[in-house]
Amino acid sequence: MSTPATVLIIDDEAGIRRSLSGILEDEGYTAVVAADGREGLKLAARGDTSLVLLDIWMEGMDGIAVLKQLKQDLPHLPVVMMSGHGTIETAVSALKLGAYDYLEKPLSLDRVTLTVEHALKESRLTAENVRLKQQVERRWQMVGDAPPLARLRDDIGRVAGTCARVLITGENGSGKELVARALHAQSPRRDQPLVEINCAALPENLIESELFGYEKGAFSSADSSKPGMFELADGGALFLDEVGDMTLATQARVLRVLQEGRFQRLGGVTPRQVDVWVIAATNRDLKADVAAGRFREDLFYRLNVVPIRVPPLRERAGDIPGLVRHFTELAAAEQGLPKKTFSDPVLDIFARLPWPGNVRELKNTVERMLIMARGATVTAADLPPELAPQGGAGLEAMPDLDALTLKDAREAFEAEHIRRVLAACDGNISRTAERLGVERSNLSKKIRQLGIASGTKGTGESRA
């Protein structure tokens, strides 16, 4: 059962205080009264007040002065002003100072209860919006202070104010979307929308309709018109994630929008002008795709005005303890998982792992261990087999790199890295090649050269 809201009544007329207290308590609220402004401020400072009913004309400190002080000390506390002989100017002045509403005396009790109900409801919604905004900001927080991340922050700060087109590159799970959000949050367009589309997640026949929208009748299932991502992002920013997965036909249309600032919906004839800041991201080598004819060279140079590389987690291993604490707190706040401490040996093991899935893989691992670990402290005994030192195929099973030549050490690390990614992809060579950013044929050859366990799967369960 929820605690009833507390309404503070500040009025120098005893009859008004009694009357309002009675009606509010009948409605299920807790009423607290004060006979003057200074007493009312002391009661409000206790922090348990949900709403204030405040008389304007009082001896000593009047209601306007009390309102100013309340808005300074408790800016989110809703205040409803009351007066028996006020003017329109007084009411307007009170509303400009932040009052929620203005009630004239003699008071209509129905109007009072309705105003209180609406003010409290709006106050709760505002508080919830603030909480959700803080939660979103915490989720997309850039955690760490390792030199690669410090350089990344510096790059973001330099670029964001210019709204120049940015091409973000980096491995899967390294945080490219986080960088896009940071760019938008620090830009002059921060109050305008950031619209996101994952070009790899949409079928080829849908991506153009999602980007450019369509008119009614443009195709058989188009029973109404729909704006596309470019329209929705007008005045703001459009984040094209995995831009390298767009078809050549879609690339041509995107290039035209970037060149001309206008486009037509599918099935439409009217050009639509837009002002959109385009931020793109990819885990592919677009220069290689350009050379192979898979990506338009002119579009590449349009998007790649400012390149930003997101470092993989293995290049910022010093940030891992802070990331683990951050993900632990997020899991507790968003999923209700218990807050647990990760032991130093576990953090040491984490720091030595290659993390092919980068920050995303670390986050998933932390959540898994918060669920599965039985004690309040996560120890090495709680590590999943593929990460545990005693697992035989983990990092600890590698030879002493210090005793090897550079060539042999590189091959040992490469072999272990491929084994881990293969395991994460259930032995599927095609998916492993995609995650590693190499051609499938080259990966199959490398597996044979390094003597990695056979029997792995390719597309259609074919052998390596």
Ordered list of secondary-structure elements with their pairings:
Blueprint (H helix, E strand, L loop, with lengths): L5 E5 L3 H13 L3 E5 L2 H8 L6 E5 L7 H11 L5 E5 L4 H9 L4 E4 L4 H31 L7 H14 L5 E4 L6 H10 L8 E5 L5 H9 L16 H4 L4 E5 L6 H13 L1 E2 L8 E2 L3 E6 L3 H6 L5 H7 L2 E4 L10 H16 L5 E2 L1 H9 L5 H15 L4 E2 L27 H19 L4 H8 L3 H11 L14
Parallel strand pairs: 1-2, 1-3, 3-4, 4-5, 6-11, 6-12, 7-8, 8-11, 13-14
Antiparallel strand pairs: 9-10
Helix pairs in contact: 2-3, 6-7, 13-15, 16-17
Q: Would you kindly provide a written description of the structure presented here, covering whatever features stand out?
A:
The chain is α/β, with parallel strands linked by helices. It folds into four domains: 6-136, Rossmann fold; 162-309, P-loop containing nucleotide triphosphate hydrolases (Rossmann fold); 313-388, Helicase, Ruva Protein, domain 3 (Orthogonal Bundle), CATH 1.10.8; 398-461, Homeodomain-like (Arc Repressor Mutant, subunit A, Orthogonal Bundle). 46% of the residues lie in helices and 12% in strands. It is built from 18 helices and 14 strands. It has helices at 14-26, 37-44, 63-73, 88-96, 109-139, 147-160, 176-185, 204-212, 229-232, 248-260, 286-291, 297-303, 320-335, 344-352, 358-372, 406-424, 429-436, 440-450, and strands spanning 6-10, 30-34, 51-55, 79-83, 101-104, 166-169, 194-198, 237-241, 262-263, 272-273, 277-282, 306-309, 341-342, 377-378. Helix 13 crosses helix 15. The model is unreliable at 390-397 and 454-464 (pLDDT under 50).
Please tag this protein with its features.
single chain; 12% strand; 18 helices; 464 residues; Helicase, Ruva Protein, domain 3; 5-stranded parallel β-sheet; alpha/beta; globular; Rossmann fold
